[in-house]
Amino acid sequence: MMTFRNHRLRDFAVPMSTNWLLNDLAEAKGKQELYTRQSPQLLKALREMALVQSVESSNRIEGVTVAPGRLRPLVLGHARPKDRSEQEIAGYRSALNLIHTEAAELQITPDLLRRLHRLCQEGSGDAGQFKKMDNEVIELRPGAAPIIRFKCVTAKATPAAVDELCLVYRHAIDQDHIPPLVAIGALVLDFLCIHPFRDGNGRVSRLLTLLALYQQGYEVGRYISLERLVEEAKEDYYRVLQQSSQRWHDGKHDFLPWLNHFLAISRRAYGEFEQRAGEVKSKRGAKTELVELAIEAATGEFGITDLERACPGVSRDMIRLLLRDLKSAGRIECLGRGPGAKWRKRVILSKEGKKEGNNPIE
Question: Which residue blocks in the chain are alpha helix, DSSP H?
Fold first, then answer.
């Protein structure tokens, strides 16, 4: 709530570079509907991919993993969890389902935050409850003693802090007319600084980000996993969070590093979405298109497992068939034998014998 106090956002001078990010996102939002009309089958495949990647990445950031063969059945199927880690995977899937289906009806309140926590921390004794003891953000360093990076709001002050945060966020949007993306960035930063739960704050913050974006019409998270992008840039994520949390308790923190990072992640998501949706060819199947895009994006050698990870909505059999077809067409080559064999895109020589680069997957 410290980012909202004293009319700080109303008086916030947005730098030119940040305005560029805001303008880029406004333009991407305007084109969003155009892309969502183009290929229902591709969008379905993208939604499945984003769902699996979001569940996997958001939990993996917190050290929660499951066997690769169990991920898709837990997320896309009806597999029952076998242990605590699988409970948390299934719980995050349930929280995403709530947001995807009911975002317009959900109001950002303390009760909703506790509900999201209860879902994604399923199986823990304090799921859905604010912390009972004070907590701190600790940095663990190899070969060195841990250091305290941030002292969070005390357990005693947490309920009031969360109440205030939810109230001032709604006021900023509805009455102060703060640009929604600026208000969302402030909401998530303050949530992380309050750190209202004993565990699971990172996961709830990512769910909160997705929900707030949906409610303001930014729905790219349905098709591109924001959690995956956060994981891929997690070193930057932790760096800017540390920068923007310094002196937060005094209301003298620098909100800008966190805001720019949040906006850059969102813009990157839209860039991926537009690239994938814009390259649809009506004569081809959506899942075929996804695999070919994944191969095109590959640098160096890749295997079937790599493609499965990049295209979680596509079966291994379909990937094998496509690899066989592309090999027959001379576009890729196999470097070994067996299911663990590696592949690579073939290099084409021009008539003059000059290297023209990897043959594009068309």
Answer: 16-36, 40-61, 68-76, 84-102, 110-120, 158-174, 180-194, 201-215, 226-232, 234-245, 256-278, 286-297, 304-310, 316-328
Split at pLDDT 50, 70, 90, the class of 140 is low
Contact by Cβ (8 Å): 162, 113:
yes
Residue 133 near residue 189 (C-beta atoms within 8 A): no
Average pLDDT of every residue of the chain: 86
Query: If you compute the radius of gyration of the chain from its CA atoms, what whole number of angstroms results?
Result: 22
- Taking CA atoms, 332 is separated from 300, 349, 358, in Å, by 12, 14, 9
What is the C-alpha to C-alpha distance for residues 59 and 202, in angstroms, rounded to an integer? 9
Phi-psi region of 251 (alpha: psi -120 to 50; beta: other; left: phi over 0): left
Cα distance between residue 71 and residue 89, in whole Å: 8
Q: How far from the centroid of its chain's Cα atoms is residue 335's Cα?
A: 34
The Cα–Cα gap between 234 and 236 comes to 5
Query: Tokens in use for 292?
Result: 């070919």
The per-residue pLDDT for range 221-250, each reduced to its tens digit, is 999 999 999 999 988 998 999 999 999 999
Q: Give the C-alpha separation, 85 to 87, whole Å.
A: 5
Q: Is the dihedral of CA 237, 242, 244, 250 positive or negative?
A: positive
- CA atoms of 231 and 59, how far apart (whole Å): 10
DSSP annotation string for 109-162:
-HHHHHHHHHHHTTTSTTTT---SS--EEEE--TTS--EEEEEPPPTTTHHHHH
Domains assigned to the chain: 5-278 (1.10.3290.10), 286-358 (1.10.10.10)
Cα 111 to Cα 209: distance, rounded to the nearest angstrom: 16
What residues contact 255, with CB distance under 8 A and at least 6 apart?
A: 3, 8, 12, 185, 186, 189, 244
At 331, list the tokens: 């576009």
Residues paired with 148 in a beta bridge: 138
